[in-house]
UniProtKB/TrEMBL annotation:
Belongs to the universal ribosomal protein uL29 family. It is found in: Mitochondrion. The keyword Mitochondrion applies. This is Large ribosomal subunit protein uL29m. Keywords: Mitochondrion, Ribonucleoprotein, Ribosomal protein. One of its GO terms (biological process) is mitochondrial translation. Pfam families: MRP-L47 (PF06984). One of its GO terms (cellular component) is mitochondrial large ribosomal subunit. InterPro entries: MRP-L47_sf, Ribosomal_uL29_mit. It comes from the Eukaryota. One of its GO terms (molecular function) is structural constituent of ribosome. The lineage of its organism: Eukaryota, Metazoa, Ecdysozoa, Arthropoda, Chelicerata. Its main location: mitochondrion.
Length: 222
């Protein structure tokens, strides 16, 4: 009697590698990423199957990329990894939409784990998901002493200086980015004198392109 099963045949470790016919190719053709609108019309079962397929594809591509780096070889079409990751992000967004709609209908709440802002040891605040504690807060002496009511011994005295230098670094990075954007906008003005200013302003919201163009014209740099 022959055994019958409906699952895909297993290829052992070869499932972590690309099709052998793509070995040595400089380019591997692939489709685009799945869009949210396309995923919304699929059933939950289809989304579950697609997630598994995308997960296996991502593992395979990451394995091939790592192997190419180890062998100092060219990894063909690296944008395939981006397409898979975008598809997985869109799929996860659709699943979250459905879960939120279900919980809102049944309980009036989103069902998402509540989040709150928490300060890390470096004085920075980040939004983290809340979780239950095994010990009630009022009875948790370690939490009350070190986190809720920290003493001078538990507070790092170098945190203010670190935050000062961190903010200075962030300002310098933003200033450098704006300088690069201005240089690029200046080249665009010279190449396309009658370009769409509204579209340009939408692309560079941090820079007043109208004021910058007037400034360049007053200095006769256009």
């Amino acid at each position: 009697m022959k055994y019958f099963h409906s699952s895909q045949p297993k290829n052992d470790l070869m499932e972590f590698f690309d099709d052998p016919k793509n070995f040595g190719e400089s380019e591997v053709k692939s489709g685009r990423a799945w869009t949210i609108d396309e995923l919304r019309i699929k059933s939950n079962s289809d989304l579950h199957k697609l997630w598994y397929v995308l997960y296996k594809e991502k593992n395979m591509l990451l394995t091939m990329e790592y192997n190419a780096k180890q062998e100092v070889e060219y990894f063909p079409s690296p944008e395939r990894i981006d397409k898979v990751e975008i598809s997985m992000e869109n799929l996860e967004a659709v699943v979250r939409e459905r879960n939120e709609a279900y919980y809102l209908l049944e309980t009036g709440k989103t069902g998402e784990r509540p989040h709150d802002w928490k300060e890390d040891p470096f004085g920075r605040f980040e939004c983290v998901p809340l979780k239950e504690h095994t010990i009630p807060m009022k009875e948790n002496e370690e939490f009350l002493e070190n986190e809720l009511f920290p003493t001078m011994e538990t507070v790092n005295p170098t945190v203010p200086e670190f935050l000062l230098k961190l903010r200075e670094k962030e300002r310098n990075v933003k200033r450098h980015e704006k300088r690069i954007q201005r240089k690029h906008i200046k080249k665009l003005f010279k190449a396309f004198p009658n370009m769409d200013m509204e579209a340009l302003q939408e692309e560079y919201p941090d820079i007043d392109v109208y004021q910058y163009k007037k400034y360049l014209e007053d200095r006769d740099e256009l």
